[in-house]
């Protein structure tokens, strides 16, 4: 199956699963990034030492110089993660040249299963503009703490597990400062306007 066919098949699966499954995942954190006060917002972010979906080392410097959108999730996610990555890919495409400077990242909250190889297969099925990020459990825990991301392993009856986690997309300016969020299920036009504002904010400094 070609990458394009795989991408369409995955997006179709999103629509089916989205209608069939309930809220396995939840927004969380201190008060949720959506409700962060100005003081709380100033503490969101920090250093990290991880690898991208190609196995290449990546750290906080990757977030400098261009605006960024970051979503925290996992590849075994049944609904929220594939839906969100599908939306992100669509928004970036819809923005065209206006959004070319925006970088996008998908950071796993499940490093035990999400190896670079698995992340590569997953993110490239949605877009070649989304960079997957993973690493050791200890290093992933550090970035989750720095970005105030809620993540919790939930054991299932069959011995497997799923992850509850924050569902917001983080918006960062060209200095890697947190400036807002796009909530799960947010209206498309509202999300696009937030991304346009993010791009303009970075252009004007």
Account of the 3D structure:
With 205 residues, this protein is an alpha+beta fold. The protein contains six helices and nine strands. The chain has helices at 3-20, 38-41, 80-95, 116-124, 137-146, 188-204; strands at residues 49-52, 57-59, 68-73, 103-108, 130-134, 151-155, 161-165, 169-172, 178-182. A seven-stranded mixed sheet has the order 2-1-5-4-3-8-9. β6 (151-155) and β7 (161-165) form a beta hairpin. α1 packs across α3 and α3 (80-95) crosses α6.
The chain-level mean pLDDT equals 85
Widest sheet: strand order?
2-1-5-4-3-8-9
Rg over alpha carbons: 16 Å
Structural class: alpha+beta
Largest sheet entry = 7 strands, mixed
N→C terminal distance: 44 Å
Structure, briefly:
This protein is α+β, with helices and mostly antiparallel strands and 205 residues long. The protein has helices spanning 3-20, 38-41, 80-95, 116-124, 137-146, 188-204; strands at 49-52, 57-59, 68-73, 103-108, 130-134, 151-155, 161-165, 169-172, 178-182.
Throw out a few tags for this protein.
205 residues, alpha+beta, 7-stranded mixed beta sheet, two-stranded antiparallel sheet, 21% strand
List the helices and strands and how they pair.
Elements (H helix, E strand, L loop, with lengths): L2 H18 L17 H4 L7 E4 L4 E3 L8 E6 L6 H16 L7 E6 L7 H9 L5 E5 L2 H10 L4 E5 L5 E5 L3 E4 L5 E5 L5 H17 L1
Parallel strand pairs: 3-4, 4-5
Antiparallel strand pairs: 1-2, 1-5, 3-8, 6-7, 8-9
Helix pairs in contact: 1-3, 3-6
